[in-house]
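Our preliminary data section would be incomplete without showing what the modeling component actually yields. Below, a chain of 403 amino acids is followed by its predicted structure, encoded as C-alpha cells that our downstream tools consume directly.
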Amino acid sequence: MKKYAMFMLAALLMLMSACSSAATSTPVSTTDSSEPAQREIIAVVLPSLDNPLMLAFQDAFKSTFGEQYDVQVASADGNAVTQATQVENFTAMKVKFMFVMAVEPTSLVPKLVAARQAGVKVLFAGGDPGDENAYDAVMKMDQFLAGEYAALMAKQWVDATYPDAAPASLETVIFESTLNEEAVARSAGLKMISEPYLKNADGAYIDANGAPISDANGNYLPGKSEADRVANPAYAPAVKIVQVQQAEMFQPCQTAMQNILTTNPEVKLVIAYAGDGAMGASKAIMDEYSKGPGLSVITDLNKVAVFGVGMIGGEGPAIADSSKDNGVFRGTVRFGGDLVSRTIEYAGKMLNGEEVPKIIWDVLDLVTAVDGQLMAVPAESSGVLVVPTAEPQPLVLPMPPQP
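Predicted structure:
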C-alpha cells in the first residue's frame, strides 16, 4: 500500500511537470490588431526653402494634409540633379501625390513621366516642362501676356506723367532674361511698349482673337494685310528704348542700373523682367537721388518709374513705399493671386480623385499703390492683351510664415 501511494505521488508529479512544460511552450501572439495602417505619402518637391513662398508651400501642405497623410518635403537647394534624384526616390516610395516646382523644368521630364507611369499623381507648378506626359496638371503663367501687362502699366504711367511728351523722347531701359523659352516670352512682352500693333510671343502680327496674320518677319499670310492688324493698347509713342540688358534679380539689376545712370543719365522708365530686379533698379535710383541737388542726375522722383513682373517677397512693401516717395517701384504684375491657397485647392481635388484642368492658368493682377495702400486690378489670365476695366481694390497681403 505504501509503495502504491508513492507510485501515485510520482505519477502526479510527472503529470504536473508535463502540464507546466506545455503551458510555457505555447506561442504568444505579439500582433496588435488595433495598430493604425501606415499613412499614404504626399511629396512636396521644392527648388529650395530659402524664400517666403517656398516656406509657405511647406507649411500649407503640412497644416492642410498632415493629419491624413505623411507629408514629406524635399528641398533641392537649387541643384537640378539633386531634385531629379528626389523625384526618383519618391517614385520608388510609391507616394500617392507629388507637388513639384522645378529648379530646371525640362531636366525633370523623364523622372516625372516615370512617376506617373508608377501611378503617382503629379501637380507641376512654376512653368511648363514641355511634355504633357510629365504631369496630370500644370499651374503656369501666360508669360508673354504678363510681360505685356507690365508694359501696359508703364504706358499708363507715361501717359499720366508725361502727357505732352514728344515721340521717342522718354529714355527707357528693359531688363530681360533669356534663360529659357518662358523667360524669352515674358521679355518679349515687356518690349511691346514700343510696338504700335499687337504681336504674339514669336513676333508675328495677330488679329483680335490672337490668330497670326503674318510670320515672325512681318510677311503677311495669304489673304491678310496691314488692314488686319490690331492697335496695341500697351504702345507708348513717347518711349525710346535706349538699353536692353540681361538682368533678373536684385543685385544684378541694381548694379546694371548704377552703370546705366552713368551712360544714360536721362533714363526715366525701367521695365524689369522680375519684381525682385525692379526693387534692385529702384534702389540704385534712390541711391543716386540721395546724392542731392547738383550732384544727382535725378532731380524729381515723381518723374521716374520702375515696373516689373512678380510679387513673391518684398515687392508689395516696396511698391507701397514708392507711393510715399520712398522708392520708384511703381507697380508689378502679380501672378497666381494667393498662389499657395490655389495650389492647396487643386492638390485637394486631385487627392480626392476630382477632375482638374490639364492647364491651370495663373490669375494675373496689376498691383500699384496709393498713399501706402496696395491696390490691385484683376486682368485676363491668358490670350490677347485687354485693358482691365475693373476699379482698383485694396490688396491685403497674407502674413509671411514665421520661422
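The chain has two domains: 41-140, 143-196+232-336+362-394. Confidence is low (pLDDT under 50) at residues 1-35. Preliminary results of this kind motivate Aim 1 of the renewal.
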